[in-house]
Design brief:
Blueprint: E1 2-4, H1 10-21, E2 26-30, H2 33-41, E3 45-48, H3 54-61, E4 67-69, H4 82-98, E5 103-106, H5 120-129, E6 136-141, E7 143-144, H6 152-158, E8 160-163, E9 174-175, H7 177-188, E10 195-201, H8 208-219, E11 224-227, H9 233-239, H10 246-257, E12 268-271, H11 276-286
Parallel strand pairs: 1-2, 1-4, 2-3, 4-5, 5-6, 6-10, 7-9, 8-11, 10-12
């Protein structure tokens, strides 16, 4: 029975549904029993476990042919990422105790970067899991296309896409969450030894200008991309409630300056099949 953490999110949900459709047994690992009901109704077993509860996690992972790990996202972390470090340590202890046959983890493009940034939380996970006593795969997706959900209202109502990704004509590796979940499920069904890294992006790389053009087609009105000046990022993020915006700023710098990128080399490279237009259309429909 494959154990899936993060099942209530987009990526984990797709991974679980993909496995279920193929006839595999799934254990939904959730913190809230009420959120497990929908998965129970789909035929899943449900395990209650906080992501820092070693004993509960170990019980959820025990005897699993594969475990899917998705760290709870922390977009405004404390300096030094103590919250993530605690969760990663708990997960490692649970995996060592449960000894599942294999582990598939959602990591990120740029996990190899040495400069500290928001995505360094996933670098910490890779470093902690690299010598686990079972095969481990780190799936490193590009920028999520679904991040454009923040742009729907301004594109629809004001004809503007305010972009932190710059310059506006620079192609960025992006991928749909549906592709990430689908590939993760596929990896759980594969066999390998040791560590493997799989880098995943969508069919083509996308510029902010092309995102604006796609929104224009969807809304039937002109939409143009504008670059948000970097000097405004910190006060803007703080005005939105962030206490420690520096990791987020450094992540954006990493994409814009080119040091958050795919590592290449011996890593596996895969491409998704979901185009940007399909994702933006879905986002626009959901925001009506």
């Amino acid at each position: 029975m494959y154990a899936i953490t993060g099942i209530t999110g987009q990526v984990g949900g797709v991974a679980a549904r993909t496995l279920l459709k193929q006839g595999h047994a799934v254990r939904a690992v959730v913190r809230d029993a009420r959120k497990g009901d929908v998965w129970k109704n789909l035929g899943c077993a449900v395990a209650l476990a906080d992501m820092n509860d070693v004993a509960a996690l170990a019980a959820a992972f025990k005897a699993a042919p594969g475990v899917f790990i998705l760290l709870p996202p922390i977009f405004d972390p404390s300096p030094g990422f103590p919250e993530t470090r605690a969760t990663v340590a708990a997960l490692r202890q649970a995996l060592e105790a449960a000894r599942p046959q294999k582990v598939v983890c959602i990591s990120t493009i740029g996990a190899q970067a040495r400069q500290e940034n928001l995505l360094s939380q996933l670098s910490l996970m890779e470093q902690a899991f690299v010598d686990l006593p079972m095969p481990v795969a780190f799936l490193r997706p590009g920028w999520y296309m679904e991040n454009c959900s923040w742009d729907v209202a301004t594109a629809r109502d004001g004809g503007v896409l305010a972009s932190f990704l710059q310059p506006l004509d620079k192609p960025v590796p992006m991928v749909a969450t549906a592709d990430v979940g689908r590939v993760a499920a596929g990896l759980l069904l594969e066999s390998w030894t040791g560590r493997r890294i799989v880098e995943l992006e969508g069919p083509v790389r996308v510029t902010p200008n092309e995102i604006a053009e796609t929104f224009a087609k969807i809304f039937g009105r002109p939409v143009h991309a504008t670059a948000v000046p970097r000097e405004t990022w910190a006060p803007l993020f703080k005005s939105q409630g962030m206490k420690n915006p520096e990791p987020r700023i450094r992540m954006l710098d990493g994409f814009n300056e080119g040091w958050i990128t795919f590592e290449g080399g011996a890593n596996e490279a895969r491409k998704g099949i979901v185009p940007l237009g399909d994702v933006l259309q879905a986002l626009a429909t959901a925001k009506k």
